[in-house]
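Chain A, query sequence.
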Amino acid sequence: MKPKLLASLFVLLATLPLYAAERSLEVSKTQSTIDIVVKATVDSFTGHLAEYKPVVVVDTTTGKVITASFAFRFADVKTGKDDRDKQMLTWAEEPKFPEGLFTLTEIQPDTPAGRHLVKGTLKLHGVEHVLEFPVSIATNQQLFSFDGEAVLDTRDFGLPIIRKFGLLKVDPLVKVRFHLQAAVPAT
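Chain A, predicted structure.
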């Protein structure tokens, strides 16, 4: 019995460094920005997302991202005009679909330009759709910076094109720009 117990303890101790290297980052919301750029015939605008729930797990020995997700509420997107914000929530059927969630599925290695190709699933308006977009990741294994831009077609999520007066239209292609600043928490 003692040899088995000793062997089990050895295996457990040998694998601890593997688990210890995986850490959830603390994202600084004061140093991070999420912007949603919307083009329209008249009155294009940029919405800002101040509240969100990011989860980024990295291997601190290699600096590689292991898993990531990003949850947000439509009500937290602010455009600077209360009336426009209310219209956006009506368009997005916010009471029925209040949240969005991006879940990372893959990060391809550095490209020659030093960017990664990120692939994941965005659930929005009750519809899941695969997105791919480039991301720059800078790190010293303690501090991390993630910068990227993704273009999404709101029609892919069952959202209608917004038209007014027969001539005015909001482009269904929306650009999401982000900069996330994060750190490995102190132990």
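The helical segments are 2-20, 82-91. The longest helix spans residues 2-20.
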